[in-house]
Amino acid sequence: MMPSNSVIICLAYILGLLFTVFPWGGVWVFGLGILAAVFFRAIYINFQKLTQKRDKSLTKGRSGNNLPLATPHPNVWLIAGFVGLLATFYFQLRVPQPGTKDISQFISDENNSNQEQLVIVRGNVASNPRLTRSQRGQFWLEATQLDEVKNDQGASDVPQGVTGKLYVTVPILQATGLYPSQEIAVTGMLYKPKAAANPGAFDFQKYLKQEGTFAGLVGKQINIIDEERKWGWWQVREQIVKSQVRFLGVPEGPLVSAMVLGGKAVDLPYDVRDLFVKVGLAHALAASGFQTSLILGIILQLTRKANKGIQIFCGGLGLISFLCLAGFQASVLRAVIMGFAALIGLALERKVRQLGSLLLAATLLLVFNPVWIWDLGFQLSFLATLGLIVTATPITKRLDWLPPIIASLIAVPLAATIWTLPLLLNIFSVVAVYSVPLNIITTPLISVISIGGMISGLASLILPDLGSTLASFLYYPSHWLIKIAEFFAILPGSSVAVGSISTWQMLIIYGLIILTLLMRWWQKRWWLAGLMAVVLIVVPVWHSTNNLLRITLLATDKEPVLVIQDKGKITLINSSDEGTGRFTILPFLQQQGINKIDLAIASKFLVNENDAWLEILHSLPIKNFYAYASKLENNLEIQAIQQKLQKHQGIYQPLALGQVVNISAGIAQFVNDTLPILKLQIFGQNWLLVGTVKSQQIEQLVKNGDLSSPQVLWCPPESLQDLVEVLKPSVAIATTNNLNSKTLSAISKGNTKLFFTGRDGAIQWTPNGDFEAFIQVTENKSSNL
């Protein structure tokens, strides 16, 4: 049966929003609408003529309305195309943009670079403080006033009225006790967020823009202006969390609260959050349909003897209360809208079509906020729900040889995984191998914790002690859930990086899923569709991995970090600090589908005592590890690295000064430990990595042979001019461009091509190509779309 008119128009609206990724995407949707109208018009006319000939002897003057009722009129397709065109314009109108008074407009370029300028920002707290990975307090601030600090006496000049929301981080003690709607003044430094500078890295600028924020504030001190505590839903949420944490402790208490209110409403420790994401249990921390189904089920069961009016009123009140507690997130709103659709069906005594209510929820939410079309939480929530609606039942029927409960336990996580995995691969490039069996095992625990958490949370609002006592019975289920997740996380191959699949690969895979859903021929050959999807993912990654020759110099703040890909053999040189390892190196390796490192060289290039090797070894095995340090026997970090290597049968080798290390693509040699200097010969090209060097040292280093003219030079910006003038490399790379215009002009007059990773992002080179800057390549791809 063809879809109804309203379904076509809703889908056209959503398609128009999706086509905003292409230039003039709305025109394409409108064109598709015209083609569909022409096609169905031809069918309409032919059907009309056939009907008139057939019924001429029986009925005269028929109007021609003899098409099946479910067949849309051709004009519907024209309207749908026009709606899709309007959707693209509506999207552009609703994309967050800084206003003329937005606080980001008052950040100068100098203030956003190395020139730190103290300011005092006054405004209202818009969220409860959270703990960041760097152990700082973070909250959102609705800015109202900006003062610039020009001396130690405090603010100067006339305060400026501003608008906009700020991403604020402060020392944890400064953030303790803050609450939403409180008026405060924060002293600190304003900055504009930066886009991702490395392949696979987190795009902080994009994240803040989706939140309608265009500036951040690194706060040093907070002054409370308004001490009056105003009532808000945050107080209810805080009382529930405190009650559950009281006897459960950490992390069990926050885990129970997060499974009831959602991970975004609770400050759950990052190690638990990361653990659940890694093993495929992230959905347990997302407030969505599971919680709303439990709420409605419990309320309707408790009010089963009351009339329908009371049932609907209580159910609606429960849904609205849950929405206020969990927050106005896309996934929560979707679940609440579908919950209200179920209540309407109860009132009308009609069975609600879940697929229709899902489409209605999607359309309403995207009319409310069209930018959500590119929100990952929105996308995953709807794909998972779609999978449960259209795929869980067919899977259950194929498992009819199993008991119904077991078949359902298998079908639900498998259906959700089928629909969400292609999107996750496109974004995160990692597969949680044991996700489905883990979800089957933990579903009973998740159900018990969720139901118990809701009961204890409700009781805590009446009697906090009673709520804490009831929550204490959830200690073992929540503790067991964490231990089971930890067990699966340490299993061999628990997560496998398959590389980032392209958008076209993702769309083809979704096309195969839809064909299997709609066409009987594909339904009988579902295994063929699955095999084609796997081949579509694995073969391109395998071919690229085993044929790729590339050097990537990652954009880092301190020491140079190089990743050398030589036909499947991976060499990593340096690791910088822990943050670089977690947010730069590992995401890049995952995006490239790299699951092991063949050779690593830790040169302690800038005497970085807090490097990321343990962070990397926690996720990836290293086969051969070379480390340079002056006192290896006293280095506790080296001992910890050796223990990690032994677990994965890796080999640790101390690196002596002047020792030549054979890598797959060439050789490496650490020739000076005071500056320092690292020589590389990779793919027949000479690289020279040099630390900070004074002008008077260069001539002596050249005589000693420590410095020789390379094709590629990396050095700190303060040494760039002197080294380029003496060594005359083809390419010179520095971290930041803090040189004055005169110096930069003098360097640029030569034949040396300059890159600055702080401006250009990661620098990549292949034997058959030129050096490319990641940010420039990304901008070109975006403009081509």
TrEMBL record:
<dbReference type="InterPro" id="IPR004477">
    <property type="entry name" value="ComEC_N"/>
</dbReference>
<dbReference type="Pfam" id="PF03772">
    <property type="entry name" value="Competence"/>
</dbReference>
<feature type="transmembrane region" description="Helical">
    <location>
        <begin position="332"/>
        <end position="348"/>
    </location>
</feature>
<keyword id="KW-1003">Cell membrane</keyword>
<keyword id="KW-1133">Transmembrane helix</keyword>
<feature type="transmembrane region" description="Helical">
    <location>
        <begin position="408"/>
        <end position="434"/>
    </location>
</feature>
<feature type="transmembrane region" description="Helical">
    <location>
        <begin position="30"/>
        <end position="47"/>
    </location>
</feature>
<feature type="transmembrane region" description="Helical">
    <location>
        <begin position="309"/>
        <end position="326"/>
    </location>
</feature>
<feature type="transmembrane region" description="Helical">
    <location>
        <begin position="281"/>
        <end position="302"/>
    </location>
</feature>
<dbReference type="InterPro" id="IPR052159">
    <property type="entry name" value="Competence_DNA_uptake"/>
</dbReference>
<keyword id="KW-0472">Membrane</keyword>
<feature type="transmembrane region" description="Helical">
    <location>
        <begin position="526"/>
        <end position="543"/>
    </location>
</feature>
<dbReference type="Pfam" id="PF13567">
    <property type="entry name" value="DUF4131"/>
</dbReference>
<feature type="transmembrane region" description="Helical">
    <location>
        <begin position="7"/>
        <end position="24"/>
    </location>
</feature>
<feature type="transmembrane region" description="Helical">
    <location>
        <begin position="440"/>
        <end position="461"/>
    </location>
</feature>
<feature type="transmembrane region" description="Helical">
    <location>
        <begin position="497"/>
        <end position="519"/>
    </location>
</feature>
<dbReference type="InterPro" id="IPR036866">
    <property type="entry name" value="RibonucZ/Hydroxyglut_hydro"/>
</dbReference>
<feature type="transmembrane region" description="Helical">
    <location>
        <begin position="76"/>
        <end position="93"/>
    </location>
</feature>
<feature type="domain" description="DUF4131">
    <location>
        <begin position="24"/>
        <end position="224"/>
    </location>
</feature>
<protein>
    <submittedName>
        <fullName>ComEC/Rec2 family competence protein</fullName>
    </submittedName>
</protein>
<feature type="domain" description="ComEC/Rec2-related protein">
    <location>
        <begin position="263"/>
        <end position="522"/>
    </location>
</feature>
<feature type="transmembrane region" description="Helical">
    <location>
        <begin position="355"/>
        <end position="374"/>
    </location>
</feature>
<dbReference type="InterPro" id="IPR025405">
    <property type="entry name" value="DUF4131"/>
</dbReference>
<keyword id="KW-0812">Transmembrane</keyword>
